[in-house]
Amino acid sequence: xxxxxxxxxxxxxxxxxxxxxxxxxxxxxxxxxxxxxxxxxxxxxxxxxxxxxxxxxxxxxxxxxxxxxxxxxxxxxxxxxxxxxxxxxxxxxxxxxxxxxxxxxxxxxxxxxxxxxxxxxxxxxxxxxxxxxxxxxxxxxxxxxxxxxxxxxxxxxxxxxxxxxxxxxxxxxxxxxxxxxxxxxxxxxxxxxxxxxxxxxxxxxxxxxxxxxxxxxxxxxxxxxxxxxxxxxxxxxxxxxxxxxxxxxxxxxxxxxxxxxxxxxxxxxxxxxxxxxxxxxxxxxxxxxxxxxxxxxxxxxxxxxxxxxxxxxxxxxxxxxxxxxxxxxxxxxxxxxxxxxxxxxxxxxxxxxxxxxxxxxxxxxxxxxxxxxxx
Length: 375
What we know:
By secondary structure, this protein is an alpha+beta fold. The chain is built from 8 helices and 11 strands. The mean pLDDT is 86.
């Protein structure tokens, strides 16, 4: 989301001050150096044969690289493009310029072509800045302008506002030009302008007669307002999930199981055993952590619709892959039964973590459902 700043009366731009650009460069550089340090430390742990430390450092380094890339892409939205939005006396005006290519585009929606305006809600998460203090959600306004072009085609234009005083000026400007203004309490944070072509009629809207109905704008809430999705949005989301499962997650899950089979067949028989368990000096801890993370990702534990028995099935499948590998290795070398017992302990440990992670996601969604029901 591009942050727009109020430059003057009802005119907004994505331009940021020079000191902010300089601060972005410093922050990105420092974070990138921390990521490079994590990779160097991971290499040191590999040299010292500290597998767990190496995995953790490399994982931290990868996360930091991803975060740095996202920050660079975010800063480019303010440095590579000029975006201006303004509610003028003749209508809603937008201007866009690609600074590198020089391409420019401007567009005006006259008030006469606006059929109606809907003030919906959207939320923005703000971190508290402290690890022991949760953040909060700021309730903002999403202005949805329904308009008709010269060919009779209906389209939608969006503009977000976080200031209640600015919102009052926008609403009064619409009223001055006799544009009907409605409002809805639904959170449309995930909806784009294209989504309203098929789903606008599904929004619960009420004619706005007083600014008191918008008193929640600019307030803070501990929990997010439930996200609204149209029927078409839900359908497309289900299609994306199915496509991702087919293209990414199912092959990844198969790769995880194949890796566990090969590890059990070619590597586990050479691991040391102490008191019927793999000791900390063995690679079992690193393999267990990587297995849990891989299963959580490949089986999409974060999705709301996942069945309660998924972690139990995954634990059984992991155990099957391990035992299959050990039984295959037993075809050409003796494998003491104690290895099967040690693997069973490792798999049950992994299963415990899988169930815990799964329940955490379910608890989050259950709390959201309770808050939605109480409203």
